[in-house]
Design brief:
The chain is of the alpha+beta class. Helix content is 20%, strand content 26%. It folds into 4 domains: 2-41, no CATH class; 95-104 and 112-204, Pleckstrin-homology domain (PH domain)/Phosphotyrosine-binding domain (PTB) (PH-domain like), CATH 2.30.29.30; 284-347 and 370-550, no CATH class; 559-657 and 666-737, Sandwich (Immunoglobulin-like). Belongs to the DOCK family.
Length: 742
């Protein structure tokens, strides 16, 4: 065996530093070993006998040509021809060679261009007459292209009017044939030979005329004389024709498999089987550059009113791909913050800790990736395995929670003088950012097509649609797919309320040597340059359909869980007095003890730490049955156990920012209104289907151990269920892992 070094496209291994120590199950251990180890190339003893027949080793000396086989039927034909030409070989005239032939029966209009090169062969027939046959090539065994019957020829004369070395055969029907040789010598030889034949024909005709009155008994002797004359001319011709035919067959006969045109083109004499290790596969890759998001409502947000005119409040863009042909979301979310620096200052400062808490990055990786440079991504690389025109790039726009979507969008939908309106919106936005800066609310959406056709040609001329106000009752991905189904119907889209603004995002193809990008696990590629000021580009995970056609062997470590809170049904609950502006906080924990901390393994949003301990879904104002579209991306630990679970904490967020009793109000910005949890493993496998789970009003220690025993009894701690332990929360998960099966 030989060893092939594992060649990846990354600067370091994709496996976390502590993964091998954490791994306990045999399957996970073997997966890690596979992604870390080199390839072994096995050479088999009888490898020469594999493959196709043309590659088989042949120890016998190869014969370039097949032996000539002579069969009885061929010999009998030869005997018949010899018997037909038993007479003497005297007087037989034969000649062959290349001549140029002018168009037949049009000697008057013959031009140089009308001459065609043909191979002429002079033969004597059984009745003693001569034919001048012509062919395209020297293979006279084939049917001739045509014949000139010399017994109808009246004379052969030189004719140099049209071409040099030309001569003319004049026929009895007043037509003529114009032929030309390559030299004067050849021309004279042909004229002499043909005139000699004409002389013989004339003498034979005269003799026949003299004997015309002879007795019928002389007919037999005449016939014999004819045969004798035939015998005198045929033998040489017949024999030479047969020899030429045999020679042609023997020269053109080769081994049967040599007749295969593929075998003639390919030379396997020194070919070694080319072995390529499995490589990371991608679909059609698209570079998405986010340039700007601007609304008509603008002003200067600085206190001293010195600075550029910008949007009056921060907005946050989330990009993803939707496939309306197969009715599904086909990529992870790509979060972008296009706010101006002065607008970002409106938000309360976040935690300065930017450490990667989900996985232990190697020191070398920390030297390459400066996490401060990763805070505000603007370029992403999407991959599409099955491109077609019905794939859309969708942008969802959010802003800081202030109230209802209708109330927040109203100032942006007017085209009148907006300076006073902008100042009012700015004032409210500053208060909201200071008080509710970590909470988001849906605001608007836009979409554009990606491809012109199913071949993957990008539709670069397409632009994003108008910015449509987000409908609070049509938030889910399913609702988005229905909206996109009507995207090409102007009469349907005209009914949607439009927010005045513009989203500038361009798309382009990705070259193979594209620099400075990281994969979906933030592992930099080999083209990554540490000293450059180029922005970092982020690969966005593609959700490849689980069908055999698109299944590929895994080559790198990848272990992500995507969590999607779908909806909460809280209109019938009686446990809490207020539960309307509901925020969901998602955490990933490895223990249900009272003082246990959530793991720092949730991918953060722009402007915040790269990994966080919790994530919030967007809040719907005054909705007791809110829907959600948020996607929370989690870097899972290498080894999962029964205690790993998702913890959902529900808060009622007070949007009232009145100044009265501001200190008291600030203390009750959020009120806990329930808990729910979802164990990650079920029967040793990660839960990936849609789940409906109950909500509790309290969170006692050891809550994972709670079990219903029936008859009103249970095992585990005392839990106060909301609304009679009905499954109020709907949540789904999507696993993208190369170390765990679904």
């Amino acid at each position: 065996t030989a060893i092939l070094r594992r060649q990846g496209r990354y600067v370091c291994s994709t496996i976390p530093a502590n993964a091998q120590q954490e791994a306990q199950s045999l399957f996970v251990t073997e997966c890690i070993k596979t992604y870390n180890s080199d390839w072994h190339l096995v050479n088999y003893k009888y490898e020469d006998y594999s493959g196709e027949f043309r590659q088989l080793p042949n120890k016998v000396a190869k014969l370039d040509k097949l032996p000539v086989h002579v069969y009885e039927v061929d010999e009998e034909v030869d005997k018949d021809e010899d018997a037909a030409s038993l007479g003497s070989q005297k007087g037989g005239i034969t000649k062959h060679g290349w001549l140029y032939k002018g168009n037949m029966n049009s000697a008057i209009s013959v031009t140089m261009r009308s001459f065609k090169r043909r191979f002429f062969h002079l033969i004597q027939l059984g009745d003693g007459s001569y034919n001048l046959n012509f062919y395209k090539d020297e293979k006279i065994s084939k049917e001739p292209k045509g014949s000139i019957f010399l017994d109808s020829c009246m004379g052969v004369v030189q004719n140099n009017k049209v071409r040099r070395f030309a001569f003319e055969l004049k026929m009895q029907d007043k037509s003529s044939y114009l032929l030309a040789a390559d030299s004067e010598v050849e021309m004279e030889e042909w004229i002499t030979t043909l005139n000699k034949i004409l002389q013989l024909n004339f003498e034979a005709a005269m003799q026949e005329k003299r004997n015309g009155d002879s007795h019928e008994d002389d007919e037999q002797s005449k016939l014999e004389g004819s045969v004798s004359g035939l015998d005198s001319y045929l033998p040489e011709l017949a024999k030479s024709t047969r020899e030429a035919e045999i020679k042609l067959k023997s020269e053109s006969r080769v081994k049967l498999f040599y007749l295969d045109p593929d075998a003639q083109k390919l030379d396997f004499s020194s070919a070694e089987p080319e072995v390529k290790p499995f490589e990371e596969k991608f679909g059609k890759r698209i570079l998405v550059k986010c340039n700007d998001l601007s609304f008509n409502l603008q002003c200067c947000v600085a206190e001293n009113e010195e600075g550029p005119t910008t949007n009056v409040e921060p907005f946050f863009v989330t990009l993803s791909l939707f496939d309306i042909k197969y009715n599904r979301k086909i990529s992870a979310d790509f979060h972008v913050d296009l706010n101006h620096f002065s607008v970002r200052q409106m938000l309360a400062t976040t935690s300065p800790s930017l450490m990667n808490g989900g996985r232990q990055s190697s020191p070398a990786l920390q030297d390459i990736l400066h996490e401060a440079a990763m805070q505000y991504p603007k370029q992403g690389i999407f991959s599409v395995t099955c491109p077609h025109p019905d794939i859309f790039l969708v942008a969802r726009i959010e802003k800081v929670l202030q109230g209802s979507i209708t109330h927040g969008a109203e100032p942006y939908m007017k085209s009148s003088d907006s300076s006073k309106v902008a100042q009012k919106v700015l004032k409210n936005a500053k208060q909201a950012c200071q008080r509710l800066g970590q909470y988001r609310m849906p605001f608007a959406w836009a979409a554009r097509t990606l491809f012109k056709d199913a071949s993957g040609n990008l539709d670069k001329n397409a632009r994003f649609s108008a910015l449509y106000k987000q409908d609070s009752n049509k938030l889910s991905n399913e609702d988005m797919l229905k909206l996109l189904a009507d995207f090409r119907k102007p009469e349907k889209m005209a009914k949607l309320p439009v927010i005045l603004g513009n989203l500038d995002i361009t798309i382009d193809n990705v070259s193979s040597d594209y620099p400075n990008y990281v994969n979906s696990s933030y592992i930099p590629t080999k083209q990554f340059e540490t000293c450059t000021k180029m922005p970092i580009t982020f690969e966005v995970e593609e959700f490849v359909p689980c069908i055999p056609k698109h299944t590929q062997p895994y080559t790198i470590y990848n272990h992500h869980l995507y969590v999607y809170p779908k909806s909460l049904k809280y209109d019938s609950q009686k446990s809490f007095a207020k539960a309307r502006n509901i925020a969901i906080c998602i955490e990933f924990k490895d223990s249900d003890e009272e003082d246990s901390q959530p793991l720092k393994c949730i991918y953060g949003r722009p402007g915040g730490p790269v990994f966080t301990r919790s994530a919030f879904a967007a809040v719907l104002h005054h909705h007791q049955n809110p829907e959600f579209y948020d996607e929370i991306k989690i870097e899972l630990p290498t080894q999962l156990h029964e205690k790993h679970h998702l913890l959902f904490t529900f808060f009622h967020v007070s949007c009232d920012n009145s100044s009265k009793g501001s200190t008291k109000k600030k203390d009750v910005v959020e009120t806990q209104v329930g808990y729910s949890w979802l164990p990650l493993l079920k029967d040793g496998r990660v839960v990936t289907s849609e789940q409906h789970i109950p909500v509790s009003a309290n969170l006692p220690s050891g809550y994972l151990g709670y079990q219903e025993l029936g008859m009103g009894r249970h095992y585990g701690p005392e839990i106060k269920w909301v609304d009679g332990s009905k499954p109020l929360l709907k949540v789904s998960t999507h696993l993208v892992s190369t170390v765990y099966t679904q």
